Amino acid sequence: MGSLKWYNMTDILFPPFLTIALTGTPGTGKTEVSKQLESEGYRILHITEFIRRYNIPSERDDERDCDVVDMDALEEAVFEYQQQIRREFNQKVFLENLKLEDLHKSPEFLPVLLVESHLAHYLCDLSVVLRTHPNTLKERLNERGYSDKKIMENILAESIDVVLCDCFDYCRRIYEINTTEMDIEKTAGCLKELIHALYDDEFNIYSALMEKMNVTAESIAVRTFSGCFPISDVLDTLEDDGAVVYEDGDDDVGDYMEEKNPILMKYVPGQNDWSELVD
Ligand SMILES: Nc1ncnc2c1ncn2[C@@H]1O[C@H](COP(=O)(O)OP(=O)(O)OP(=O)(O)O)[C@@H](O)[C@H]1O
Hints:
Interacts with uS11. Not a structural component of 40S pre-ribosomes, but transiently interacts with them by binding to uS11. By secondary structure, the chain is of the alpha/beta class. The chain has helices spanning 9-13, 30-39, 47-53, 71-95, 134-143, 148-159, 162-170, 184-212, 217-225, 231-240, 255-260, and strands at 6-8, 18-24, 43-46, 58-61, 66-69, 112-116, 126-131, 173-178, 244-246, 264-266. The site of adenosine-5'-triphosphate (ATP) has 15 residues, from helix 2 and helix 8. Adenosine-5'-triphosphate binds at residues 24, 26-32, 118, 140, 179, 182-184, 187.
């Protein structure tokens, strides 16, 4: 099954670009594991650094000893950043004439952005949650010199699945990796395997859709850049396939979508099951 709720035209015409949250209770290893992947060339967005770099407004909560960020401002800034990365990536694909079926072979060209933070699952549709047994987590947080109160708050949160429950409210697809018995390298290995599997899944759906529309991915890229791709043909094909197609100015389009995307297609799970297109 595809994970994206909404496809705009760029989503359809270019290979899928996945934004994946790497989330979890503090101390479960998000920072270390994502740095390992970053050193290998994967695209990572560290939210803590991002908040500082882009001056996203936040307030200090002295009682809980943490900063509370303005989530609306953060969400908007991350969305813009993701769009920019995606545009740059699509240009690269086009200008360097990259073969779409080879993209997954190197981390540098893999169309995936991993968003690392305990807030990441509020920003992405697809989440990977790092989990750690509370006893091990307690040891890790002790080594960091956290206060007893802060350790207790975090191990309690991990025991009762706070982050995981939040993911169920905000994400469509959720995966967990238990890091308790693993070192950082092994956890990073698991994460890489998962990311590649998720991307392959999206790419297979995309390829099947392209095949159904009887166009090759390369010809779509060329036609889109030269501005002559017949968008109405794509929309007709999708409508024939049972999809609900919204056009610019359509009353049914929600505020968010009107703002962000000129033309949208609603993907309704179950109603239009593209998984049957994949062998
Ligand atoms: N799989 C692991 N096995 C053993 N130790 C680990 C593992 N992952 C992380 N650690 C250690 O646990 C500590 C916390 O890791 P890290 O800072 O990456 O957590 P985090 O989830 O990013 O926390 P925060 O949300 O507070 O930034 C580090 O000292 C790290 O070396």
